[in-house]
Design brief:
alpha/beta; 6-stranded parallel sheet; globular; 12% strand; 35% helix; Rossmann fold
Length: 224
């Protein structure tokens, strides 16, 4: 059995993992789902990372931390705060020492889908359906819309990465082949160049824990 700590992104609450959790549990795993604050615009990435680290019980020594989308910015910081067995980037930006997440996006036009930039999937149903849940059935889309919640991690996204060196922890990257937010080719390249690994490929869009939870659970189980 492994313990997975699932960290939601900036546009959904922890309820967004609801379809994935039973798929992991029936494979014998335990799941932790921290809730990140939605009202701390000025909180640092380290603040969010500590919330994630503190959500893992003290007697769990081998947690696998999976972060989605914007929350990938916190992953290496979690590994700096406490021991974890692996960090998994799911369709997200990899932090880079010496710059900010926003700085990366501004400097590299291949990172984000230009059509996505400036959109708000939390307040606009059509945007959420087109960019986040386009590969889901209408029924699943309707459910997923109820899990939306905006995380105002403004400082965390604009501050220079606080890492002095990359933590010594195994890392994996899962790229979604039809992602309409973070561009898949950037993800593949960044995984090779920054993490020294080949990205694990999943079909479909930005939120595979919604659109194909069984497939994602299989991949996570293989990593465990």
């Amino acid at each position: 059995m492994s313990v997975f700590c699932l960290v939601h992104g900036s546009a959904q609450s922890a309820e967004g993992w609801n379809l994935l959790v039973p798929e992991l549990e029936k494979r014998g795993h335990a799941v932790i789902r921290p809730t990140l604050p939605a009202d701390t615009r000025d909180a640092s990435a380290t603040h969010y990372a500590r919330i994630i680290a503190d959500s893992i019980p003290n007697d769990v020594h081998e947690a696998i931390v999976v972060a989605h989308s914007a929350s990938c910015a916190f992953l290496p910081l979690v590994a700096e705060i406490r021991h974890v067995s692996r960090i998994v980037f799911l369709a997200g930006v990899i932090p880079q020492i010496g710059t900010s997440i926003l700085g990366q996006i501004q400097a590299d036009p291949t990172l984000m889908n230009p059509a996505w930039i400036g959109k708000n999937p939390v307040t606009d149903d059509d945007v959420a359906r087109e960019f986040l849940f386009h590969d889901c059935s209408p029924e699943v889309q309707d459910w997923a819309l109820t899990t939306r919640r905006l995380m105002f991690a403004v400082r965390a996204m604009t501050e220079t990465c606080p890492l002095e060196k990359w933590p010594d922890v195994p890392a994996s990257y899962i790229v979604c082949a039809d992602d309409r937010t973070v561009q898949p080719e950037w993800s593949r390249r960044a995984a090779r160049e920054r993490l020294g690994i080949e990205a694990i490929e999943l079909p479909g869009g930005h939120c595979p824990y919604v659109s194909r939870p069984a497939e994602l659970a299989r991949v996570l189980t293989e990593l465990a």
